Amino acid sequence: EWEQHKVSSVSKVTYGGGTPKTNIKKFWNGDIPWIQSSDLEINRLFDISPKKYITNESIQKSATKLVPPDSIAIVTRVGVGKLALMTFEYTTSQDFLSLSDLQVDSYFGIYSLYIMLQKELNDLQGTSIKGITKLDLLDKELMIPKKVNEQKKIGTFFKQLDDIITLQQQKLTLLKQLKKAFLQKMFI
């Protein structure tokens, strides 16, 4: 049995983000991951590698917040539609809304939000999408199974499919490199 829920019910806590002043060197090159929209890809929901890191002082003196692990980071401005399940503590730019203390299975939650956002983007195709407000996003609706066990089974199934796809893509890349090496040896 599934029920309709607002996105706001998926988590107990939400976080916005902010960008520490880039001209203050002591705010940067710390050990706290700072995620920006360009770190995420539209069809990649896991294994995000941050490119920038900030210091504790930058958190204290900017709008960015320290988000706990196992939260879902959603791009709400430039790059709308990108999201990721973050397995580590992180901070974000102001282009994000993060959902923490999830009230659904994390894999089920990330896939449900991904499908909802992709549908929204497809429905708006042809228009210039500048962003989605926090309130609009939290007011969107999702269908969620009542039983957490069912959520886990669905989430795990899609995660396993993603893992298989990633593995096959890696194999394909290796085969293409091998082909290129053989061609170079044969014709050079």
Description:
The structure is a single chain. The chain has 188 residues and is of the alpha+beta class. The protein has one domain: DNA methylase specificity domains (Adenine-n6-DNA-methyltransferase TaqI, Chain A, domain 2, Alpha-Beta Complex), CATH 3.90.220. It contains 4 helices and 9 strands, in the order E-E-E-E-H-E-E-E-E-H-H-E-H. The chain has helices at 56-60, 106-123, 134-139, 148-187; strands spanning 2-6, 11-15, 28-35, 52-54, 71-75, 83-86, 91-92, 96-102, 141-145. It has a 4-stranded antiparallel β-sheet, with helices on one face. Strand 5 (71-75) and strand 6 (83-86) form a beta hairpin. The radius of gyration is 19 Å and the shape is globular. The termini are far apart. The relative contact order is 0.19. The mean pLDDT is 92.
Short recap of the structure:
With 188 residues, this protein is of the alpha+beta class. The protein has helices spanning 56-60, 106-123, 134-139, 148-187; strands spanning 2-6, 11-15, 28-35, 52-54, 71-75, 83-86, 91-92, 96-102, 141-145. The strands form 3 sheets. The protein has a 4-stranded antiparallel beta sheet, with helices on one face. The chain has a 3-stranded mixed beta sheet with strand order 4-3-7. A two-stranded antiparallel ribbon has the order 1-9.
